[in-house]
From TrEMBL:
<dbReference type="InterPro" id="IPR029052">
    <property type="entry name" value="Metallo-depent_PP-like"/>
</dbReference>
<protein>
    <recommendedName>
        <fullName>Calcineurin-like phosphoesterase domain-containing protein</fullName>
    </recommendedName>
</protein>
<dbReference type="InterPro" id="IPR024654">
    <property type="entry name" value="Calcineurin-like_PHP_lpxH"/>
</dbReference>
<feature type="domain" description="Calcineurin-like phosphoesterase">
    <location>
        <begin position="28"/>
        <end position="101"/>
    </location>
</feature>
<comment type="similarity">
    <text>Belongs to the metallophosphoesterase superfamily. YfcE family.</text>
</comment>
<dbReference type="Pfam" id="PF12850">
    <property type="entry name" value="Metallophos_2"/>
</dbReference>
Length: 111
């Protein structure tokens, strides 16, 4: 058991993210995605992750406020919230990424 603990610690040092990570890293259509809830992460951390992993898309949430912005060559997306919007107008929203075209949208959900 002690040997496994040491190995996990070394893996954690090499990965630079926790072993039981709050991040999801995915490849789709040749693009690199990282998805993270958005709490306990600074703008500096986001910049570092984008650069280190050469991300094409960084998807986050937590604030429940929609956002699409570009950092270096990465599109940072917060789709907002489908039910608990924190926008001033309280309109809920979802996000869409069209990987082939590179199109990114946040769509308002009005009843």
């Amino acid at each position: 058991m002690e040997k496994q603990k040491k190995k996990a610690y070394v893996d954690k040092m090499m990965l630079d993210v926790p072993i039981q990570t709050p991040y999801v890293f995915a490849f789709m259509e040749g693009k690199r995605f990282m998805i993270q809830h958005g709490h306990n992460i600074s703008d500096e951390d986001i910049h570092r992750l984008i650069k280190r992993y050469k991300l094409d898309y960084f998807i986050t949430g937590h604030t429940h406020i929609p956002l699409i912005k570009k950092i270096e060559n990465c599109v940072v997306i917060n789709p907002g919230s489908t039910s608990l919007s924190k926008r001033e107008d309280k309109i809920n929203s979802v996000g869409f990424i069209e990987v082939e075209s590179g199109s990114v949208h946040v769509i308002d959900l009005e009843t």
